[in-house]
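=== RUN LOG ===
request id: a7f3
mode: sequence -> structure
chains: 1
length: 524
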Amino acid sequence: MITKEELKELLHSTETYRVERTTSLNDMDKFQEAICAFSNDLPNSRKNGYLILGAYDNGTLSGLKVNDDLLKKIAAIRSDGNILPVPVMSVDRFVFPDGELLVAEVTPSMMPPVRYRGRTFIRIGPRRDIATETEERILAERRTSYMATFDTMPCLAAKLNDIDMELVRNKYMEKLIGKELLAADGRSIEEQLSAVGMYDTEHDCPTNAAMVLFGRHPRRFMPGLYVQYVRFKGEDVSSEVENEIQLEGNYCELLPRLESLLELSVIKKKPVFVSMLREEMVGNFPYTAIRELVMNGCMHRDLQSNMPLRIYEFAHRLEITNAGGLYGNARPENFPTINDYRNPLIASAMKTMGYVNMFNRGVGQVQADLKKNGNPPAEFVVDLITAFRVNVEDVPKSLPDVTSLSQVLSQDEQKDASNVVNTDLSQAVLSLSQVLSQACPKMFFKYVEDAIAVMRAVEQAGLPMTALMKVVNEKNRNRFKRNLLSHLIEAELVVPTLTDTPSSPNQRYALTEKGKELLKPYEI
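=== RESULT ===
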């Protein structure tokens, strides 16, 4: 609040745009219009405005006696709902030999335009007026400029020694501007950090971005800044916990450890035969896709929340959840086409350090990597408002390999099936399932994957029905014919080799040219 000495100077001040003197006590409209105008601060002086009751325009006092009722009456203006957004103001009484003054001190709003009963009042020199359309636009644009993101704001409780300067130089500044330019920069470290948004010189402290990226103990300032990884044995959080890991630290330390966690604990690879002499390692999830999702979670999270970034691994799926829903221009109806950044400074730094690309291609690349690996598309849950979740399912089941066939086929059938190699259908099964569903519209979708397995076996081995039933673990002959084989024959994808004696025990089934053409694009 203004001091008594400062008030004496203000009574005769020529800065009429920030002072209104009056001897009136009952004109509440006048008082509220003045407070609204001071809140808008059209000249952008960033100086407080003063409504002074008990003084004439020339600065002399009227001899007013300020009682408690008048103080309460003026103070109530702040919260009576007529001025919105609510003004930041304080009210006090000052006693002089010539009388008393009631002073309402108004701080310029960070959320202009401020309106009194729907009208925007501004101060033009010594008088009040209603803002024009152009003046309202100026105030609205100023509101946008005031709305600094959390990562660019000062971390008031932190000091310069709370950030690791070695990390700042080696992991960030050298990559950002180069060693030579950095060595030639003669400015103080505070000025250097301020130039890249990592230090607030006005408050003499690091920004929140600096604490997140390079802080020595960032959780002291942001309690939710850690990663919680939990592996459950079942399909939900009520199942038994198999493993739990908690990672914390600044991003320079945390992100590399997070990459190691994904490689060592989340991504599990196993050998899959692609021919009788060659095999490939196939993972339950593609590393590049999961890494992209986790890094996006670190970049877009709401750092003011106490909720950690959660990576929950269930028996057949992965769930990644972070605080903060869609931000800014990104909305459920335009996601992922439109992107916006909750933490633009952190996002820029993560790009400089090589963790993200910021090309708005991340989601598309994730889906492409999942498809290539054989996983279903990732499910983005964007309607949680205060959180953002991604669900990724494990690769679906693949065709039996030669070893598993040998366990279910007779010796003669094994001979017929000797050319059936272990080909993992997962990389193409999703796309092919859609095509096969269109070719066999009467077939229930849950049988489509088994139908692909039957077509693959028929193409390479020409197996009898009993062997085909064992390929898909079906024991009921009629059910197999009704749900699978009849649909494939009707669609002219599979044909019996003995057309004159369809019930012959020597009956085999072959893939038609149409069937071969259907499989060919998918390398099944």
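=== NOTES ===
Residues 274-278, 398-428 have pLDDT under 50 and may be disordered.
DSSP finds 19 helices and 20 strands in the chain.
=== END ===
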